[in-house]
Specification:
The protein is an all-alpha fold and about 180 residues long. The chain has one domain. Helices cover about 75% and strands about 0% of the residues. Helix 2 packs across helix 4, helix 3 packs antiparallel against helix 4 and helix 4 (about 95-115) packs antiparallel against helix 7 (about 160-175). The longest helix has about 30 residues, at about 40-70. The protein is flat and about 105 Å long. The protein starts with a helix and ends in a 10-residue tail after the last helix.
Length: about 180
């Protein structure tokens, strides 16, 4: 019985080594792309043009959103001021929120001035056709960069005052949150 056991053991060991060896051999071949397999420049350009077109569309949408916010800024400021006046009439401390609103209102003209050049960039859409497709890649890249710079300059002109106002409103709400009275059964 021991010879049969040794034979079976050796056979299983040989099968295991054979299986491990076969598993190490790749079942499909892989090769590096040769010089002839390179994508043509027109294929690369079309992929890059699609990306450029998406970026152009995204920047136009961001510019429109900034335009809408700046157009509603005066209305927002007046509504916020009336709410602050109402809270001050109740005797609440509104100095923090008033300072944040004043800082926000003070930067709106500078932000508008930084934002205005974008309209000319979008109107001319140099490098793009009327549908937003790339017509001249070099000009399109410059147009995207120019509009991106306008968006950045507008954000920088705001100087974080929008976020500061939001934080001041949040702090004011936390301070003046109505107390929860226990429910009477």
């Amino acid at each position: 019985m021991s010879t049969q056991f040794l034979f079976l053991r050796k056979t299983l060991l040989a099968a295991l080594v054979l299986a491990a060896g076969l598993a190490a051999i790749p079942s499909s071949s892989a090769s590096a792309a040769g010089f002839q397999d390179q994508p043509t420049p027109s294929e690369n350009r079309s992929v890059n043009n699609e990306r450029l077109e998406r970026t152009w569309a995204r920047e136009q949408a961001l510019y429109q959103r900034q335009t809408n916010r700046l157009a509603r800024a005066d209305e927002f400021i007046s509504r916020a001021q009336s709410l602050i006046d109402k809270a001050a009439g109740k005797g609440w401390d509104t100095t923090g929120i008033q300072a944040a609103l004043d800082a926000f209102a003070a930067v709106i003209p500078a932000a508008q001035a930084a934002h205005d050049p974008g309209l000319a960039i979008i109107s001319s859409h140099a490098g793009f056709d009327a549908n937003g497709a790339v017509a001249d890649r070099t000009a399109a890249v410059e147009t995207v960069r120019a509009l991106g710079q306008v968006l950045k300059n507008t954000r920088l002109a705001m100087d974080g005052t929008g976020q500061a106002l939001r934080a001041a409103v949040k702090a004011f709400r936390e301070t003046h949150r109505p107390s929860q009275s226990p429910a009477i059964p």
